[in-house]
Design brief:
Elements (H helix, E strand, L loop, with lengths): L1 H67 L11 E3 L3 E4 L7 E10 L5 H15 L9 H20 L3 E11 L1
Antiparallel strand pairs: 1-3, 2-3, 3-4
Helix pairs in contact: 2-3
Length: 170
């Protein structure tokens, strides 16, 4: 009978040791995770605070830049009118978007009505352009030339130059 108890006690002892071992490993894993999380969490919180501070600085810089940049409606002193940004899709592929910011240099005093007409004409033209037509430097030059021609026709010589501020295709 002593042998059966030893043999019977051995599996009980092995089961208990396995459970104890798993409990110790679980506690070590949880403790290690807590320590690593404590080390990483402050840097995450710091990064979030840094991002918020950067966003606030960028917003303030944009306000200053907007005030210091070209005015939307020009004065007679500089004869420049910055048009509202044009964002539209291309003719092909229709999923492609283009964003274009243009400023017009008038020969004389700026005319708001002409500027609005030019803006609408450029918008209508860009909607007819395909991505293949404006790819590469040569395509961009053709686009600039085409827009300059349309502005010359629409403004009847009152606009001397079209200045591209931004051109982004997505």
């Amino acid at each position: 009978m002593a042998e059966t108890e030893t043999a019977g006690g051995q599996p009980k002892k092995a089961t208990i040791m396995t459970i104890v071992g798993l409990a110790v490993l679980t506690l070590l894993g949880a403790g290690g995770g807590w320590v690593v999380g404590d080390m990483v969490a402050p840097s995450i919180k710091g990064a979030e605070q840094a991002e918020q501070a950067k966003a606030a600085r960028d917003e303030a810089a944009q306000k200053k830049e907007g005030e210091a940049g070209l005015p939307r409606i020009s004065t007679e002193a500089n004869n420049i009118v910055q048009l509202e940004p044009i964002t539209t899709n291309l003719a092909y592929p229709s999923e492609s978007l283009v964003r274009l910011e243009v400023a017009l240099l008038f020969n004389g005093p700026p005319d708001v009505k002409v500027a609005e007409d030019v803006h609408q004409d450029i918008l209508a033209y860009v909607r007819t352009v395909s991505l293949q037509q404006i790819e590469g430097p040569r395509g961009f030059e053709y686009l600039k030339d085409d827009i300059q021609e349309r502005v010359d026709l629409r403004a009847q010589g009152r606009v001397s130059k079209v200045m591209f501020r931004t051109f982004v295709v997505e």
